[in-house]
């Protein structure tokens, strides 16, 4: 039985223009124990899919089950299987950290879990904040509580919706260390993120969404193989020769040219030399997930 089964899910939001289709027949299966990444540009439909999974939004058509439970028909049973860390920081400001976690445990009907709450506080660097009032915490600390809150009932599936957006390096490392440990213990993890190096390092499999469609779905290592093998990267103040402009990715002074092999690199260098382009900090690097992502997004309709 898959941990998460998404079967031809579509979602159309009602709008003043008559409707907007955010998801178009999305199908995915995530096996137990996977660390799965859901990637896509802004507005691709990631949060919509997670909201349907968490039972917060209804699909227009299709079906999602978690550990075999239908997220709509068996809402309470399905919800217990999930620990959802949302993007937004929403809290009751009147409680302290420990009370917040006890309250959340009560919501799931979990009692006598103080040892687990202590472990969560410890693992997320919150031990000395246990008695701090929620409103006294910094944004990063609140985010840690949000993670702890999602995990109070030890759910088999952990869903993280952009958990590292705007958080510092220390919290990222604390979070990834803890989530990786839980994954090794058998918890399934579904992650959405815009940090592609994090997805590359953590996820064994990845789906890419664009305009509500799945445009890539494979093991991370296979996706990396499909990309151009290398990238010629340099800085310049000059305009690129016309022949290279369509394939180049330019960010300020930085130019990146995806290459399929040494012949491409030789051709790029010859063209640049001929045009008299002066290059600084030139390097040839291996293609990474960001290169794959940009390639897939460019190619997909
Ligand atoms: N309640 C709503 N009513 C109408 N349109 C909506 C609603 N919620 C989301 N949308 C639209 O659906 C599309 C998908 O949004 P969604 O938030 O799922 O994208 P996302 O992939 O999570 O984006 P991001 O990376 O910016 O978080 C967007 O075009 C968005 O404007």
- CATH topology name of the domain at 1-81 and 185-226, in short, is Rossmann fold
What is the distance, rounded to the nearest whole angstrom, between the alpha carbons of the first and last residues? 33 Å
The pLDDT mean sits at 91
- How many strand elements? 14
Anisotropy-based shape: globular
Number of helices: 10
Series of secondary-structure elements, N-terminal to C-terminal? EEEHEEHEHHHEHEHEEHEEEHEH
Q: Which stretches are poorly predicted, pLDDT < 50 over at least 5 residues?
A: none
CATH architecture of the domain at 1-81 and 185-226: 3-Layer(aba) Sandwich
Main β-sheet, spatial strand arrangement: 6-7-8-3-9-10
Largest beta-sheet characterization: 6 strands, mixed
Indicate the proportion of strand residues. Answer: 25-35%
Mind telling me the CATH superfamily name of the domain at 1-81 and 185-226? Answer: P-loop containing nucleotide triphosphate hydrolases
Structural class designation:
alpha/beta
Could you tell me which ligands this complex binds, including any ions or cofactors?
adenosine-5'-triphosphate
Helix content: 25-40%
Radius of gyration from the alpha-carbon trace, in angstroms: 22 Å
**Tell me, what is the CATH class of the domain at 1-81 and 185-226?**
Alpha Beta
């Amino acid at each position: 039985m898959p941990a998460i089964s998404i079967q031809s899910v579509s979602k159309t939001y009602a709008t003043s223009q008559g409707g907007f289709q955010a998801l178009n027949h999305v199908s995915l299966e995530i096996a137990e124990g996977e660390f799965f990444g859901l990637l896509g540009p802004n507005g691709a439909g990631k949060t919509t899919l997670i909201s349907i999974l968490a039972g917060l939004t209804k699909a227009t058509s299709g079906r999602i089950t978690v550990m075999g439970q239908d997220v709509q028909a068996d809402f309470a049973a399905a919800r217990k299987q999930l620990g959802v860390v949302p993007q937004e920081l929403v809290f009751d400001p009147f409680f302290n950290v420990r009370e917040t976690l006890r309250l959340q445990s009560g919501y799931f009907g979990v009692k006598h879990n103080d040892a687990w709450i202590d472990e969560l506080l410890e693992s997320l660097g919150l031990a000395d904040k246990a008695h701090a009032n929620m409103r006294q915490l910094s944004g990063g600390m609140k985010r840690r509580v949000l993670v702890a809150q999602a995990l109070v009932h030890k759910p088999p599936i952990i869903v993280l919706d952009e958990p590292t957006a705007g958080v510092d390096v220390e919290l990222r490392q604390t979070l990834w260390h803890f989530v990786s440990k839980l994954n090794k213990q058998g918890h399934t993890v579904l992650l959405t993120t815009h940090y592609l190096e994090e997805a590359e390092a953590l996820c064994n499999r990845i789906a890419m969404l664009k305009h509500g469609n799945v445009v890539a779905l494979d093991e991370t290592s296979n996706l990396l193989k499909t990309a151009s093998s290398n990238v010629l990267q340099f800085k310049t103040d000059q305009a690129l020769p016309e022949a290279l402009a369509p394939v180049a990715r330019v960010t300020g002074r930085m130019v990146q040219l995806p290459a399929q092999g040494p012949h491409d690199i030789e051709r790029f260098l010859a063209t640049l030399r001929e045009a008299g382009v002066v290059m600084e900090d030139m390097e040839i690097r291996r293609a990474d997930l960001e290169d794959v992502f940009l390639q897939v997004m460019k190619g997909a309709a």
